[in-house]
Write a structure and sequence with these properties.
Blueprint: H1 11-15, E1 22-27, E2 30-31, E3 43-44, H2 45-60, E4 64-67, H3 69-73, E5 81-88, H4 93-104, E6 109-113, H5 126-134, E7 138-141, H6 154-172, E8 178-180, H7 188-196, E9 201-203, E10 209-210, E11 216-217, E12 220-221, H8 228-235, H9 239-261
Parallel strand pairs: 1-5, 1-12, 2-3, 4-5, 5-6, 6-7, 8-9, 9-11
Antiparallel strand pairs: 1-10
Bound molecules: zinc ion (ZN).
Residues 88-89, 142, 146, 182, 272 line the site of zinc ion (ZN).
Length: 276
């Protein structure tokens, strides 16, 4: 789907010179250093610390600015290329590990939470979510349950997205404006439904750069095996650093969709693995 048709340019961005497209980084849980069997989508604390140091260095040289998602999307000015940090799934490590490190480095991030899992073992509870919000972090939606959204009938899709937004807004006392599609699975119907019930944009797991005001936001996943060199390449927008992920994403898109719609294929609702 072409991104060009999915861009709404905010008034604040129209008045300024065209800002650089942003690098959005997607993280999941943070595990203790030396822990056995870190999940592919999680990072060890030390790895995240190294990434933060790299971001801090690039920011000090004026190459990038780490911004909060909504400030970037609305077109706030910044020095160099905007970089936005996103955390999905709402695990306890968001408040126990990520928050203190982000505060130490003076950086803000946005946290995408499944409202149905708040308070479950291993997940954030409302006091943790409020602590993130008070610290200036963004609280956003990952849906009510961790559903493959394209599979849901219209009314259930609306209910999942609306419920998550209302519960998170009420529980965190803040405005929820962005949806991150679980498993990175989305289609035009998901996007249009999200926009119709008040979300400003949908975040995917597709790699690449994104313009402020885009309705579909690319995010580049920082995985256990993502190296500092790879991250540096993304920040400097070296085409070679994005190409492998973009090719893989395009290659997998069709098989992923066949699996999604095949009878007995993708599970409609699958909570992320329990976090302990
Ligand atoms: Zn997820």
């Amino acid at each position: 789907m072409a991104t060009g048709a999915l861009v709404r340019v905010p008034a604040s961005a129209q008045a300024a010179a065209a800002p650089a497209r942003a690098v959005l980084l997607l993280l999941h849980g943070l595990a203790e250093d030396g822990g056995a069997g870190i999940a592919r989508f999680d990072l060890a604390r030390g790895q995240f610390l190294e990434h933060l140091r790299l971001l801090q260095g690039a920011q000090a040289r004026g190459e990038i600015t780490v911004m909060e998602l909504d400030a970037w999307w609305r077109g706030d000015a910044c020095r160099g290329r905007p970089v936005v940090l996103c955390f999905d799934d709402g695990g306890r490590s968001d408040v126990e590990t990520a928050l203190p490190l982000l505060q130490e480095f003076g950086m803000r991030a946005s946290f995408f939470i499944n409202s149905a899992y708040v308070g479950r073992a291993g997940y954030l509870d409302w006091s943790g979510i409020q602590a993130l919000q008070r610290a200036g972090m963004g609280i956003e939606s990952h849906g009510h349950e961790h559903c493959a959204l394209p599979l849901l009938p219209r009314r259930e899709l609306e209910s999942q997205l609306r419920r998550a937004r209302h519960m998170l807004q009420d529980g965190a006392g803040t405005r929820v404006r962005y949806l991150a599609a679980p498993y990175g699975l989305w289609n035009r119907r998901v996007l249009e439904t999200a926009l119709s019930i008040g979300y400003a944009a949908v975040c995917t797991s597709q790699p690449g750069l994104t313009e402020a005001g885009a309705l579909r936001i690319c995010r580049n996943a920082l995985l256990t095996h993502t190296s500092a060199r790879q991250l540096q390449g993304w920040l400097r927008c070296r085409p070679g650093s994005y190409a492998p992920r973009i090719c893989l994403d395009r290659l997998l898109w069709t098989p992923k969709n066949i699996l999604l719609y095949a009878p007995g294929g993708w599970r409609r609702v699958a909570p992320p693995p329990p976090k302990v």
